[in-house]
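Our preliminary data section would be incomplete without showing what the modeling component actually yields. Below, a chain of 267 amino acids is followed by its predicted structure, encoded as tokens that our downstream tools consume directly.
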Amino acid sequence: MNPVALITGAASGVGKHLASTLIERGYRLMLTDIQEEALRAAFPSSETVQTRRLDIRSAEEWERLLGETLHLFGRLDYLFNIAGVVLPAFLLNTTREEIDRQIDTNLKGTVYGTHLAARIMSHQGHGHIINMASLAGVAPIPGMEAYTASKFGVRGFSLAAGIALREKGVHVTVICPDLIDTPMLDVQLQRPDESALAFATSRPLRVEQVTQAILHAMERKPLEVTLPVSRGLLAKLGNAIPALGPFLYRYLRQRGLQRAARLASRR
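Predicted structure:
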């Protein structure tokens, strides 16, 4: 039987491209998103591809959907926690609602899904969970403090869970990409001051590049993948010496503002 995978955030961006790729490869899929109309427009339901609305902030919805996935397909081989949200804002201007939404969606949603899927997979004796973090989970992004907190949490949680679950036959991989050309990029372009450091790289990643990294991770099952590798190494180096942060911020912020302006002019 072909593998079974559940993908969150499948209505757009990386989740949508990954879903299309796995459909071509014959996977049986449960595709989810909070944007139900967009999801159903992108992927009509069939015997092998099912679409459902899922608010990943709700543990109860996770339990219901995973139970339905097992009922329809009999097992769960992969969980891809792709769904996420970014609300750029300097800490002093961040609202309580913005904090809650990013922590609840990015961090708690990933923890809920991983926790419940890992129970199923450990009972099976196999499974692979791939969680989407960010390079903002490797090195901090001033101006996006709440988002940074959520992605640091996703990365730390995934690494810890990945080590603990391996003896159960369950693998966890955390993907930490740089800025990706998805609808989330447009949100950041609307707040260039707050998002300046996110634009300090040469160009955003394409969804195809991220999907390819995920496919490679499915084969190799590493604990962590950074994209691109060079930026990941720089992020880890910069974060290893926090005292450099204020000096790097001034330089990278100006560079990011310039690149964000050029990118906005071309969209």
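The chain is about 55% helix and 15% strand. Strands lie at 4-7, 28-33, 49-53, 78-81, 127-132, 170-177, 224-227. Preliminary results of this kind motivate Aim 1 of the renewal.
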